[in-house]
Amino acid sequence: MDNIQAQMMRDELQGQEIGGWVIDGFLGNGKSAVVLPASKDGMRGAIKVFHRELVERYGKEMQYERILREKSLVGAHHENLVKILDGGECPATGYLYVVMESLPYKNLHECIADIPLAAVPGIISQIASAARYLEDRQLAHRDIKPENIVISDDYSKATLLDLGVLLPIGAESLTDVDQRQFIGTLRYSSPEFLFRQEENTIEGWRAVTFYQLGAVLHDLLMKKVLFEDFTDPFPRLVEAVKSEKPHIASEDHRCVHLANRCLMKQASTRLELVKWADFHLDEPLINPAVVARERVLQRQQYQRKAMGPQQPAAMATSQIKRMLEDACNQFETRLAAFFNGTGMFPLRMTHTSSEPANKKFQIYIQFERDDDLGLPCSLSVLIDVVLMDVNAGEPVFRATMASALAPAPISTIASRPDQSCAGDLPALLDGPFLEGALVGYLEAAYNAIDQGVALTPDVGFPLTCN
């Protein structure tokens, strides 16, 4: 809709009733509708009235179906989701319309440069909560972006708008599945969504939602739109969505780490690394592992040359081998620095093995008995690291750990891993996972000794890190 069409609709509708709502002003317009203040039975709202010609051109049935989806939320309430008040087709005028609460605030895109860093965790937590509210009702938003989020003047309350693109998850419809029409915003779409390869399941749409939340978080932290340097020409932006890793830096390391995980190119990897609970950024840090992460030195900052959207399965064995060797060397270096720096652990023997065919390597650590440290038994720790994915040239790993206590060194640990973490190497090596698990196993060994547990030679007593 151009400005002339919007002006004509604005003038035509002043003082008119649409679905019983009396129009008295103008708020703005979008691609296919005007938004106007309106009242009915003492209620005030913002009515979106769709241009008749554009509706007919692009499909009245399609638009009406979307309006009914929005109308299904009449009476539903979430404090961070815009309230839908009414909607349908006006019998007197034939106009399609939706009425929502009127929110006199700017959207995030308009004021993003002014939003303080301290407000960012609360904003993203609130929008994630609204998105999960929709998911719990089997609905996917599909177009979460700064322009569809308004923020109160004090930056304390964010509200998710534009429910016209809602999709019932799992539903097969002519509009959204058979025609495979792209509904969303390219810049803020995950690769699988952009190329219409998303899975029409709860998990598939959750992966899309996580990506879009990460994109909004990127903009809040970086004070600029995602892929700003790749805007023109259009194919360049498409390629950036497909293969470019955004650079994100901020004093809020929790937010940076979450944004990076959300913006993983592969949906399956995204779901491995991100959970709904991760968006509770506005809650106090009470998890010891999270607290430990906040105490470590600032995460290593470096950039890697993008290798393209290769997947481990499609990579040459030599490439996988080099990645595994590099990761194993970094693990060994980090472990040595930790053990030597703390002085808490006995002398040790470290054995490594690599299986490029299975995209994994192992580090097996055997600690000697040390009566001076009060450890008259042998502690063993197994670290198993698997290459999960390559995200814009950066390898992503899953590390699991297990530990056992025995009278003497044992050749292997039979117990199942009790610790697990996934992410890039900085997340695994500099976060709380590795050091926390090692100290936890050492403490568990002392507890087992205090409790007088029976130790079995060659097998060992499995230790659990709390």
Automatic annotation (TrEMBL):
<dbReference type="GO" id="GO:0004674">
    <property type="term" value="F:protein serine/threonine kinase activity"/>
</dbReference>
<dbReference type="InterPro" id="IPR000719">
    <property type="entry name" value="Prot_kinase_dom"/>
</dbReference>
<dbReference type="InterPro" id="IPR011009">
    <property type="entry name" value="Kinase-like_dom_sf"/>
</dbReference>
<dbReference type="GO" id="GO:0005524">
    <property type="term" value="F:ATP binding"/>
</dbReference>
<feature type="domain" description="Protein kinase">
    <location>
        <begin position="21"/>
        <end position="286"/>
    </location>
</feature>
<protein>
    <recommendedName>
        <fullName>Protein kinase domain-containing protein</fullName>
    </recommendedName>
</protein>
<dbReference type="InterPro" id="IPR008271">
    <property type="entry name" value="Ser/Thr_kinase_AS"/>
</dbReference>
<dbReference type="Pfam" id="PF00069">
    <property type="entry name" value="Pkinase"/>
</dbReference>
